[in-house]
Write a structure and sequence with these properties.
This protein is an alpha/beta fold. The protein folds into three domains: 46 residues, no CATH class; 107 residues, no CATH class; 266 residues, Alpha-Beta Complex (Spore Coat Polysaccharide Biosynthesis Protein SpsA, Chain A). The strands form two sheets. A seven-stranded mixed beta sheet has the order 3-2-1-4-7-6-8, with helices on both faces. A two-stranded antiparallel ribbon has the order 5-9. The radius of gyration is 34 Å and the shape is extended.
Length: 467
């Protein structure tokens, strides 16, 4: 009985062994057939590495400078494309000459042996319209007459402006304008540069109440939401200053705000801003408020309009901000900043877009900043310069509405733009080496306006001495 079971087990083991060998042989044959097919088609189907999976090597996101195979084979492909074009041109020329000779002989037969020196293009001896049209296409190449040769579809990419104009439809006037503006932008950034030792600005220490809470308000901002923000700061941090930056408040509201304890209404000087920043419907104004807040208070906690403090959890956030001078309190979104950033912004804010595609977009509910040299040099000087440059913060054609649904894990550009939030994401990700844990923390301290009316709870100070 035992021997029978043992024999049965050995037979089963052999069957499994043979099955594994058969599978390996079958896979090897399939790979060999695929390899031979690729060789016959000029190496069109090369084995892709892990970096090519899901990337779309020939899609809109394909960058040949990143493709190692293309880097070494592009010249050979380019030369082979040229040779194919030359062979095709020769064949067409021979065909056209044969057709011309036939047309000439037929004409001479009809005339009974006419003048041999007569020009082919004269009289009735015109080249047929179809051939004449083909000659035009052959003569003008990429400038073609709407029915270009199939060879014209080959991408030469030799730097010719005419080819790029036809193939990619680049607006060269816009390119020249971008170059001028980029030069001015880089000059402005260079003027704001500062030299510092990073080790001198680690673990900064200042009292918690030295950080002022600031926000901004327009006439369209919910008045009760603004009052709820003021009340929450007075309740949790009664000794902290509160700064409200005026982006268009009425005189009556400004006077009322100044009666509240430790509240000051600060001018935003919007009349001095560039014209593109005066459109407050587009979120581009926050960097200006941050810059003025740092200059006025030194250490700021900016809270988004229509949000308020609902817990006293600021101590950990402030400790976190002292390491590098900045802490963003917000949430990670399910898509990349690359998806919602206009490509022209990269022309001013240079960044590795492939690394940008691998990180999450984040929003800003609250941001804590210290007016230190690292913050000014590595973050604010670039952000403010970009905000002041129209083509950086709001590139031509940029809009908030996206074409595609922003689904989780999306990495393809959705033809939309997030203005100052896109710039903040790019600059902070680049500054911190795309390690978002060094500057980004989850928001558990603020909440969106809940509709409560707290106007009768706010502390009112009748004169400055009480404040």
């Amino acid at each position: 009985m035992l021997l029978r079971k043992l024999r049965k087990a050995l037979r089963l083991k052999k069957l499994v062994h043979y099955a594994v060998i058969a599978i390996v042989v079958w896979i090897s044959c399939r790979l060999y057939i695929a390899y031979q097919a690729g060789q016959q088609q000029g190496g069109r189907y090369k084995a892709y590495g892990p970096r090519d999976i899901g990337r779309g090597r020939e899609g809109p996101d394909y960058d040949e400078s990143w493709d190692i195979d293309n880097k070494f084979n592009h010249k050979d492909k380019h030369e082979s494309g040229k040779s194919r074009l030359k062979e095709k041109d020769r064949d067409d020329e021979v065909h056209r000459e044969n057709k011309d000779k036939k047309s000439r002989s037929d004409h001479e037969e009809q005339r009974g042996g006419g003048d041999q020196d007569e020009k082919i293009g004269g009289g009735d001896n015109k080249i047929p319209d179809s051939d004449h049209k083909k000659d035009n296409v052959m003569q003008f190449g990429e400038e073609g007459a709407g029915e270009g040769r199939s060879e014209d579809k080959l991408s030469k990419k030799d730097g010719s402006k005419e080819e790029f104009q036809v193939e990619n439809k680049i607006d060269w006037l816009l390119e020249e304008e971008l170059q001028k503006r980029r030069k001015l932008f880089l000059d402005d950034v260079a003027k704001r540069a500062e030299e510092y030792d990073p080790n001198d600005f680690k673990d900064m220490q200042e009292a918690d109440d030295h950080l002022a809470f600031i926000t901004a308000a327009t006439e369209k901002t919910s008045w009760t939401a603004l009052l709820q923000f003021i009340y929450s700061v007075q309740y949790f941090y009664p000794s902290s200053d509160i700064g409200v930056y005026d982006l268009g408040l009425s005189d009556e509201k400004r006077r009322q705000l100044t009666t509240y304890c430790r509240v000051s209404v600060n001018p935003s000087f919007t009349k001095l801003w560039p014209d593109h920043l005066t459109d407050l419907t587009k979120p581009m104004w926050r960097p200006m408020i941050w810059q003025m807040g740092l200059a006025h208070y030194g250490h700021i906690i900016f809270v988004e309009p229509e949000r308020y403090l609902h817990k006293k959890n600021m101590k950990d956030y402030i400790e976190h901000s002292r390491r590098y001078g900045i802490t963003v309190v917000g949430r990670k979104l399910q898509y990349s900043p690359f998806v919602v950033t206009h490509p022209e912004m990269y022309y001013f804010l240079n960044v590795d877009t492939r690394k940008l595609q691998r990180v999450n977009m984040f929003d800003v509910s609250m941001i804590i900043m210290h007016n230190s040299q690292p913050v000014r040099h590595d973050f604010m000087r670039h952000l403010v310069s970009c905000t002041l440059e129209e083509y950086c913060i709001t590139p031509p054609g940029s809009r908030q509405q996206c074409d595609n649904r922003l689904y989780p894990g999306s990495k393809k550009y959705a033809n939309c733009h997030r203005y100052d939030l896109s710039a903040v994401n790019i600059l902070l990700d680049k500054w911190f080496g795309f390690k978002q844990e060094d500057f980004l923390v989850k928001d558990i301290a603020t909440a969106h306006y809940d509709g409560k009316d707290v106007s009768n709870r706010i502390k009112v100070c009748k004169n400055r001495e009480e404040i």
